[in-house]
Amino acid sequence: MSRIIKMGVAAAMEALKDAELPMPDAIVTGTAYGCLADTDAFLTRMVEFNEELLSPTSFIQSTHNTVGAQIALMLHCHHYNNTYVHRGSSFEAAVLDAQSLIEEGEAENILVGSVDEIIENSHTIISRFGIYKESESNKLLNSGTNGTMAGEGATFFVFSKNKETGSIAKLEDIKTYYKTNRKAENIIHNFLMENNVRVDNIDLIILGNNGDAKTDEHYNTVAQHLFGGKRLVGYKNYCGEYPTSSAFALWMAARMIEHGKKINDETSPKKILIYNNYKLKYPSLYLLSAC
Fold first, then answer.
1. Which region holds residue 149: left if phi is over 0, alpha if psi is between -120 and 50, else beta?
2. Three-class SS of residue 109?
3. Average pLDDT for residues 67-91, to the nearest whole number?
């Protein structure tokens, strides 16, 4: 297995173990880059061998649905299995698909996740566009400089129709957009209105600040106009910036609710809002509550 497949399989198996679910009714995965290392290896060998006598292994493992397929093979799962490749909204597409399956009665327990990796060549190519910071720094958030920090990750959840014994949190709603002309403040306000939630009812807001001066200005403006005095935290200082990083934010929110209950149920966050806007083109919102 390549590194990204190991990452995805390990995260998926941990999620199933924690949920005590031996077999999911469906597997839905989101990824923007897919298996970069295998793609790079295959393309490199094409050049080196003049497109002759090529081993098919790297090509077979380079497809975006490899992680979901490998999980199914290990579980001997013949149920619904789909992978979404929608750049900055890949994970959101996977969650919405899982939501549809549950609402339509097609499945009750679904393994949902995302996986993206970064390799040396992809980092070099993306760096040419000025996406990443040129100098290393221990400070990422509110650094006031251009560029962000490269990241990668594999995150998986088990979504269930009903509350189970080991359920951590309830996903109240999710919303995603692409290149919308609507202001972020309006998007968030309408999202909360649709769920009959006021800003005062939210215990914690997780924002997608990534250390880039322009991007941080966007989040800071939203925070000032909507969330003055509320508890705000970032998450990309832990995982870096990558297209499906919102999955990490959702995992972090769920863990905050879980560990908060263990420490002090009265002071633990009961309702968490996540707002991420990858490259300022893919705004997405999650509303999570304790169950």
1. beta
2. strand
3. 97
DSSP 38-86: HHHHHHHHHHHTTT-S--SHHHHTTSTTHHHHHHHHHHT--SEEEEE--
**Predicted local distance difference test score (pLDDT) of residue 266:** 66
Q: What is the pLDDT of residue 29?
A: 98
Is 63 a residue whose pLDDT tops 80?
A: yes
Contact between residue 213 and residue 146 where contact means Cβ atoms under 8 Å apart:
yes
Q: Does domain 169-290 have CATH number 3.40.47.10?
A: yes
Q: Which positions ≥6 away from 89 have C-beta within 8 Å? A: 176, 178, 278, 282, 284
Evaluated on CA atoms 131, 211, 286, 123, the torsion sign reads positive
* Superfamily, domain 3-117+152-160: Thiolase/Chalcone synthase (3.40.47.10)
Q: Where are the domains of the chain?
A: 3-117+152-160, 169-290
Residue in the block written with tokens 């949902």:
112
